[in-house]
Structure formats: C-alpha cells, structure tokens
Amino acid sequence: MLVPMLEQFVTSTQPIMDQLMKALADENFADAKKATHASAGSAKTAGATQFAEICGAVEKGIHENDLDEVRVRTPQIEPAFDRVSGEIEGLKVS
C-alpha cells in the first residue's frame, strides 16, 4: 500500500517539477513560488524531507526576494527529486 502511494507522489509531482523548472528558467517567480509550495507540501507528506527542504528554501527565497538563495538552491531541486524517485523505484524491486 505504501509503495503505490509513493509512486503517486512521483507521478503527480513530475508535472509540477516541469512547471517549476520552466518558471525558474523564465524568472516567472509567481509561478515558481506556487510550484515550490505544492512540491514542498507533497514532499513532506511523502516523507521526502530533503526535497521538501530545498523546495521550501526556494519558495522562501522567492517570497523574501532573495534571488541569491534562489539561484543557489535551484540546481539542487532536480537531483533531490531524482534521488527520491530512484529510492521509490528501488522499493518496487525489494
């Protein structure tokens, strides 16, 4: 039961990740803030704490207009999501 729920997290978060990375690349911070908020909330629910923390830091940076923090954290988002996805995929094999 847990693995299908975690798989749903990955499936539902991937499109948000795509939107987030496009919004950040376009410097569309309003959309990026919404996407980081959604991603962080989903990640917390799934227990993906590192991914949630990174998304939360980007969201906070956008909210506080701390673009240096946003620029530092943005490259960390996709690798963190990929780690979570890989760990969930590994649960299916076990």
Care to describe what's here?
The chain is mostly helical and 94 residues long. The protein has a single domain, classed as Four Helix Bundle (Hemerythrin (Met), subunit A). The chain has helices at residues 2-25, 29-46, 49-63, 67-93. Helix 1 (2-25) packs antiparallel against helix 4. The longest helix is centred in the C-terminal third of the chain and has 27 residues, at 67-93. It is elongated. The mean pLDDT is 95.
Task: Compile the SSE list and pairings.
Blueprint: H1 2-25, H2 29-46, H3 49-63, H4 67-93
Helix pairs in contact: 1-2, 1-4, 2-3, 3-4
The fourth-level CATH homologous superfamily is HPT domain
Weakly predicted, low-confidence segments: none
Rounded mean pLDDT is 95
The dominant shape is elongated
Number of domains: 1
How would you characterize the largest beta sheet? none
Alpha plus pi helix count = 4
The H-and-E topology, N to C, reads as HHHH
Distance between the termini: 14 Å
CATH architecture level-2 label: Up-down Bundle
Portion in strands: under 5%
- Proportion in helices: over 70%
According to DSSP, the number of beta strands is 0
CATH class category name: Mainly Alpha
Cα-based radius of gyration, to the nearest Å = 13 Å
Structural class comes to mainly alpha
Q: Could you name the CATH topology?
A: Four Helix Bundle (Hemerythrin (Met), subunit A)
